[in-house]
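Hi Y.,

Following your request, here is the sequence exactly as I used it, all 393 residues.
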Amino acid sequence: MLLPIRTDRPPRHRPTVNYVLIGLNVAIFLALEFAVPVPLAGLIKQFGTLDTASPQLHQFVSYAFLHGGWMHLIGNMVFLYIFGNSLNDKLGHVEYLLFYLAGAIFSGAGYCLVSVSLVVGASGAIAAVTTGFLVLFPRSRILVLFWLYIITTFEVSSLVLIGFKMILWDNVLIPMIGGAGNVAHEAHLFGYLFGFVIPLVLLAAGILPRDQFDIFSLWKQAYRRYRYRQMVRTAQKPLWVGMKQARPVRPDVGASRPAEEEALPADEHSRHLVAKIAESIDRYDLATAAELYLKLIDHNPDAVLPRRQQLDVANQLMSNRQFGEAAEAYEKYIRAFPAGEQIAQVRLLLGIIYGRHLGHPDRARAMLEEARRTLGDSTQRNLCQAELDRLGE
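Below is the corresponding structure, written out as tokens. Let me know if you'd prefer a different format.
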């Protein structure tokens, strides 16, 4: 058995209305059980029970304050306390009371449409409170008490506990396999529907203030991550594949290079490694070129390859997921060739590396801001903005 104990979203103000509702439910139950003479208690229960075959207007409220037994009462009050306190705090006292009563009315009316029976209990109203909590605090964690052969506690996401366990399992799957026959599952489902839709509408209309914790914020961030993945797939095939590779340059071609590409390291070993890197790139063997480049950097940390070759090697290191080495190679490219081609894409890649892989958000933002100002491709600009938004979360 699972029983919620508390959430990680305690109310900031005293949830007075929720306490009053709990007190009323308990007081009415105790009075009918112990204080009121049995014949009168029977008449009160008959008067207040919702008869779906011939409902009276008052019954749509009164049935929610009657309970069929101790376990019925205790179970409902535990859930009302756990989820109602935070909802009372968020909505305010009057609004929460109206929401609670409307949830009871809606779930009772819905049950009248699908069943002919007598029904009592606050379960429909509490179901509305529960999904109202889910809409406003979908990221919350709930501490749950579990006991079967052992007794233990664990934390679970509100989406899992409310969405899967309480709605899908308890009120859809269990009735389908014939369990829990004396429970008005349909009333629960109508309550869940009301509690989900009404806060959603209030948030969408701006009547209920939005914040970073509600379900719209969750959807927005999920969509942002989806867009980011889509842009990465389209713009990053991977992204560095779109950068021009160095053309093969053979000793007998004799093609002239810009002055910025002709500087070679002074020592013999470095020149030998640079030559081997060039040969590897000529053969399109970029994996070997990247390995040789790392040897070159170990020997001569200040070494920089010719412009196209430096970019090719940096791209290959990125492809190898050697993010630290790739970032260093891209940084050298920017410092050595500030007017080089595709400099904006290099800054975009550096922003992604620093932000997602190396844990340097400030450096990532600096690179991404500069890239956003200079990128010409709209897809890459969107990718850049998505990454900046992610860093700002």
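The chain has two domains: 2-213, 223-251+261-392.

Thanks again,
Q.
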